[in-house]
Each structure stands twice: as structure tokens, then as C-alpha cells.
Amino acid sequence: DQQVKQNSPSLSVQEGRISILNCDYTNSMFDYFLWYKKYPAEGPTFLISISSIKDKNEDGRFTVFLNKSAKHLSLHIVPSQPGDSAVYFCAASGGFGNEKLTFGTGTRLTIIP
Amino acid sequence: DGGITQSPKYLFRKEGQNVTLSCEQNLNHDAMYWYRQDPGQGLRLIYYSQIVNDFQKGDIAEGYSVSREKKESFPLTVTSAQKNPTAFYLCASSMISRLANEQFFGPGTRLTVL
Q1: CA–CA distance, B27 with B13 (Å, rounded to integer)
Q2: How would DSSP label each residue in chain B?
């Protein structure tokens, strides 16, 4: 049973526009959510996180939104740049004492120059 | 430079052989993890350890073994019992914290069984 779902395997966005990556989860015990970026043959790099006590967290061009009632989170990248082309994974955990992360299957983002 | 190192980057093994993948961290993190990534799939947890000399099975532990004799090191052995071992293996580490538990990843090891 996939507890964290990224239903879009791929997304193409024009350079300069906004990229929106979506993630849904089913486990109501998850209270901490993270986004990672991954290039081929490399380890994922942490991007941004959000705890369930917030509904938005911003870091430069990256903003994560959390809708707890819908069990949905999204990552907004604006403006999108060619270097943003990568696979993005969302992940969730049950917080302190339960540091295991459950990952989605990833969305491949391609920024078109 | 603080970080996580994995070696080797590429590893080839004959069917029926055990192989050990190395993972070392100098971030002073308490917890360490091993994941496997297959094409088109997310990261699946193999084993994790929150303290020296203790570890727990993840979602796909069958055919794998680990040890945690030192805080800095968490080697993974892929045994001959693992039916489909060809994959990209990732090691990660994290603090155990109420505030945040971001995991930091190493560069990965690609294992190919010939």
C-alpha cells in the first residue's frame, strides 16, 4: 500500500514559469513532510520541509504548502530554472521517535528553455 | 568537510556471491539508513539504526544484513539470498530530533549482478 503518492510521473514547465509538484498521503500519523531533489546516479538532496503545525513554508524560490484535511502537499518553484530539471521526491514521517521516512515514487521535472 | 561517503560507486558481483557496501558519516548523526532505488520507483527502506549495536528491518530487509558497531559506520551486506539485487543503493543519516529529522544522503552505490 503506497502511503505517499506522487501521481504525476513527469512534468514539463517553461523556464521562468511556476512549477507545481503534488503529493498525497494516506497515513494520518504523518506529521512532518520533506521534499528532495535527485539527479541521476546521485543521492537525493534535501530541499525544504514542513511540519503539520504549519500550512506553508518558504525558502527562496521554493514554497511548500500543506493541506492536512485533504492530506495533500505541494511544492512550488518560481521562477523555474533549467537547473531545476531533476526528479523530485516527497517524503513523510511520524515525527520524533519515528524518523523513518516514507517516500513517494517521484516526479521528473523538465524545465524547457 | 562533513558528509556521507559510500564506496564503491559501482560494484559488480557474480550471482551467488555476498557483497558489502560501505557507508561512513562524519556528521555525528545518531541514525543511519539504507535504501534501495529501482527505475521508476521511490526509495524503499532496507534497514535503519538509531543507535550503535541496534538496528531494525525496513520494508524490504529480506536478503540483506547490516551491522552498527560504530556510530560513524553502517555497512550493508547484500547476500546471495536477495533475489533481485541489481539496484542503486543509498545510505542516509539524520539526527534524532523533535524539531526536524531531515535525512542526508550519500552519493549511492550502483550494484550490478552479472
Answers
A1: 30
A2: ---EEEE-SEEEE-TT--EEEEEEE-S--SEEEEEEE-TT--EEEEEEEEETTEEEE-TT-TTEEE--SBTTB--EEE-TT-S---EEEEEEEE---SS----EE---EEEEE-
List B64's β-bridge partners, or say none: B78
> Which residues of chain B have a Cβ shorter than 8 Å from any chain A Cβ?
4, 6, 31, 33, 35, 40-45, 48, 50, 58, 88, 90, 92, 94, 96-98, 100-108, 110
Q: Give the confidence band of A20 by pLDDT, cuts at 50, 70, 90.
A: very high
Model pLDDT, residue B40: 77
- Predicted confidence at residue A99, as pLDDT, reads 72
The string of pLDDT tens digits covering residues B14-44 is 988 999 999 999 999 999 999 999 987 889 9
Grid cell locating B6: 559510500
Contacts of A49 in chain B (CB under 8 A): 100, 102
- Quick one: average pLDDT of A79-97? 90
